[in-house]
Structures are given as structure tokens and as C-alpha cells.
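So, read this over?
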Amino acid sequence: MSAQTIVPNQTLYCRNLPNKIQKQDLRRALYLLFSTYGSVLDVVALKTMKMRGQAHVVFKDIQSSTQAMRALQGMEFFGMELKISYAKSKSNTISKLDGTFNIPSTGPSGSTVPGAAAQPSIFTAPIGLPSAGTTTGGAAPAKEASPAAIGTKRPRDESEGEEDGDAPMEDEESEMEMSDED
């Protein structure tokens, strides 16, 4: 598919990017380069084997992305010639802003992700109790807490010797002897 058959999009697909630069530095450099042409919403640069040397730059509007693509096409970026085209589909960032984003429920093979729904959540267990799907791994089980005690504050143990929350100080001379020899 050539660049002429892809319809104009808010997301630009950049190729021929350097592999040796760290991901955060690459994202920052792309943001600074492309933000001169319009409001950049997101820069997606992955360092996987499939996506190395490539990035997606998401603009707020199509006019900005078109202007940036025309101005930066073929520009030398870290010693390599930029190759820019419109992305084939709408980015997730734009879909979330439009309200049309759907969470993908299938894996790359088209089947559902194994264990996604069957795995119990660690956030649904009561405080102090292990969740249904976790084991303690040989450690002592957590204290059983009564439902009335969950979420209540323990009273502070007040002692007669403490004032204003200061801890009692021990005699410093008994711990460390000072010498005047210098």
C-alpha cells in the first residue's frame, strides 16, 4: 500500500529511525521536532524487533499532520533520512478522545486472551486476607480481622514518660566515649 492510497490521518507513521537511541530520548526528540507544526498528543515509539526504527506521531488535527509530513519528509534525523506517511488506521489516543475506543478482547491469533477473565483479582479480597487466587508461599497466614476492625484506627498507647510524642533518649555518654585527643 503506497502513501497515496492511504487517506489523510491525524497519526503519522515514521520509518527509518535510528535504533541506537534510547526510547525516551527518541520520543522526546520526535515530540520536539513535530510539535513545531501543531499540537502533538502522543508519540508511540516501541523498541520491539517488529517495531524498531519506527514510530507513530499523533496530532490533534489532520492539517497539522499534513503540514508536518510535507515539511519533514526526507529530512535527516540523527543521521538517517526520515520516511513519513499517514498511518493506516486511527490511533488509540484519537479513538479515546472521540469516544469510539473499544478495549481489544482478542489476542493476536483471534482467540480470547487465556486467563484474562478466569484470573481472580487481588483487589477484590478484604484487607488483611489473602485473595482467592494467591498463596502465601509458605509464609504465615495473615491475621484474621473481624469485619468491625477493618478500616478502624487503633488507639495510641500513651505512656507517662513521653511528652509531645518524643521518644525517650538514652544517656549518650554510656554509648559512646568522647576523647579530646586531636
